[in-house]
Amino acid sequence: MKGATAYAAAFELGKVIPVRAVGQIERSNAQGFEVGELVWGFLGWEQYSLVSDPISLRKIDPTLGSISYNISCLGMPGLTAYVGMLDLGRPVAGETVFVSAASGAVGQLAGQLARMAGCRVVGSAGSDEKVRHIVEKLRFDAAFNYKTEESLERALEMHCPAGVDVYFDNVGGDMLDAVLARLNTFGRISVCGQISEYEGTPKGLKNFSALVHKRAAITGFIIYDHMDKFDAFLPKMAAWLAAGDVVYYEDIVEGLDRIPAAFIGMLRGENLGKRLVKVGSDPTLQ
Amino acid sequence: MKGATAYAAAFELGKVIPVRAVGQIERSNAQGFEVGELVWGFLGWEQYSLVSDPISLRKIDPTLGSISYNISCLGMPGLTAYVGMLDLGRPVAGETVFVSAASGAVGQLAGQLARMAGCRVVGSAGSDEKVRHIVEKLRFDAAFNYKTEESLERALEMHCPAGVDVYFDNVGGDMLDAVLARLNTFGRISVCGQISEYEGTPKGLKNFSALVHKRAAITGFIIYDHMDKFDAFLPKMAAWLAAGDVVYYEDIVEGLDRIPAAFIGMLRGENLGKRLVKVGSDPTLQ
Question: What does the CA dihedral B158, B164, B168, B169 come to, rounded to 10 degrees?
Fold first, then answer.
């Protein structure tokens, strides 16, 4: 309900809605920013943006991959997976790592980073197509469709027979409760999002008291607090992508007029991978 | 319910019930343990104990304080407060620290350690007498009686006007929910116990989703995992006690036959301070 109020205030007629976007400099009065250069940062939901604080922009190195990667795997979603999994989850080879929303913008990377650390990686998603994608394309060890499982605890028991050591939580709610019941001693839970709790009254966590006897740590985080890690993250993730250790999927919708539908569809889980909206041509492909 | 089953199994007729206790060596076949020496460790609820693994015993230095301190402030309850507050809570001068069960075996020390770190320290307890004790004797900045407050959130708002940065949780349940609502950004919660959840069906945490936007960390711990810190802890705590920086209150019941009543009374919160049962005389006082 708080969220709804905030959105209403954000969507004012005539007001630019900021969004993390890739752009090419068309005109510049700012030192160090030349016409034709590619940048990313907070621009608007629009085809041309006026940026009064260019210091907030980051320059794009197009040799690192598709320029859209700068707002997906090489940008905030990538850093979110990196910090939440490696710094907070601290996966150790041989452990079992579970990721919810595992085909999403952040989840797909979180799981692959854990696989690279030598873990058994299990994901959940909301369609059979996503489940196949997670196993076949993202190379998780297992995945399940949380919408069709009779019991989340049963599904976790089947796919994580040795329990869960690290949980990368994108959804909160019932899934978090089910993971708490399957969590191993010294388990770590990185809480990245709680999409199940964004609307309505929270049902409340029932298995929270498992925390003490399992000596578990649950940490919520917001990626803006970890921007100091960006410069270390970027070349590493770019190298993993280049080597094929990590793959990344984007779900790109074209056209400014399709933004509302693209956004609502993302909240409904229609996207397979990071949802982006393309409002202009990619100059590196011309 | 699990707890009840475990207790039932533990209390078998004719079986020694182990308990952490102080004793004096009466006879010894073990090298390094001389008759007359004082030790502490797992003995029995009895006047004379046979210890087959003397390596589990620790020798007592009676110059550090009352010998009972070795099973209170200089023993496991002390180490629990030390690790849970300093290592997990990481209080910083100027922050607000809240401790539930604040007059208890662990809580009284947890709060005093935070006060020594320069924090505003607030406690809760279950009687007005305890509340007075917490403020007057333990020198917390404020305390309240959770049984007579109409709203825990209101009480926290009043006593922690700048929010809560660190919560040392001994009780779980509604109090934890109320603290989550008042928790500051980057707040830390050390979950030491959840006595409110030990019986019946857990009601569930409602405010758990605060964790993400508050970037908070909640860590459950069991002190046995931190025994490697004991040797660093002991001289420090002894020095703080000797200097009067920290005070400690024990609630001693005398007589082997009063053990059941003493134990049940402790679960009911009748004790003011660490409840101990004295089953013999203190040789250092003779």
Answer: 70
Give B204 or B274, the one with higher predicted confidence: B274
CA–CA distance, B168 with B80 (Å, rounded to integer): 11
Short-list A118, A116, A131, CA closest to A243 = A116
N-to-C CA span, chain A: 45
The most distant pair of C-alpha atoms in chain A lies apart, rounded to whole Å, by 60
* Cβ contact, residue pair A208, B192, below 8 Å: no
β-bridge pairing B217-220 and B183-191: parallel
Burial A43-53 (b: 16+ CB within 10 A, else e): bbbeeebebee
User: What is the mean pLDDT of the segment spanning B264-280?
Assistant: 93
Segment B60-76 shows an average pLDDT of: 96
Closest residue to A217, CB basis, from B208, B219, B225: B219
Closest CA to B85 of B73, B70, B104, B99: B99
B7-29 pLDDT tens trace: 444 456 777 788 899 999 999 99
Q: What is the pLDDT of residue A203?
A: 72
Nearest Cα neighbor of A15 from A7, A27, A3 is: A7
**Which residues of chain B neighbour A190 with C-beta distances below 8 Å?**
none
Where does the pLDDT of residue B55 fall: very low under 50, low under 70, confident under 90, or very high at 90 and above? confident
Contact B167, B98 (CB under 8 A): yes
Measured CA to CA, the distance from residue A33 to residue A27 in angstroms comes to 9
Taking only the tens place, the pLDDT of each residue in B141-159 is 999 999 999 999 999 999 9
Q: What is the 3-state secondary structure (H, E, C) of B10-60?
A: HCCCCCCCEEEEEEECCCCCCCCCCCCCEEEEEEECCCCCCCCCHHHCEEC
> Chain B window 167-206: which residues touch A at a Cβ cutoff of 8 Å?
172, 176, 191-194, 197, 202-206
Size of interface A-B (CB pairs under 8 A): 86
Identify how many contiguous H helices and E strands chain B contains and give both numbers. Answer: 9, 11
**Is B5 buried (19+), middle (13-18) or exposed (0-12) by CB count in 10 A?**
exposed
Asked if pLDDT for residue B279 goes beyond 50, the answer is yes
CA distance A96 to A160: 7
Please report the ipTM that was assigned to this predicted complex.
0.77
Low-confidence ranges of chain A (pLDDT < 50): 1-10
Å between A202 CA and nearest CA of chain B: 6
- B227 close to A (CB below 8 A): no
pLDDT > 70: percent of chain B: 94
Given an 8 Å threshold on Cβ–Cβ distance, is B212 in contact with A218? no
Is A15 in CB contact (< 8 Å) with chain B? Answer: no
Among B204, B215, B220, beta carbon nearest to A220: B215
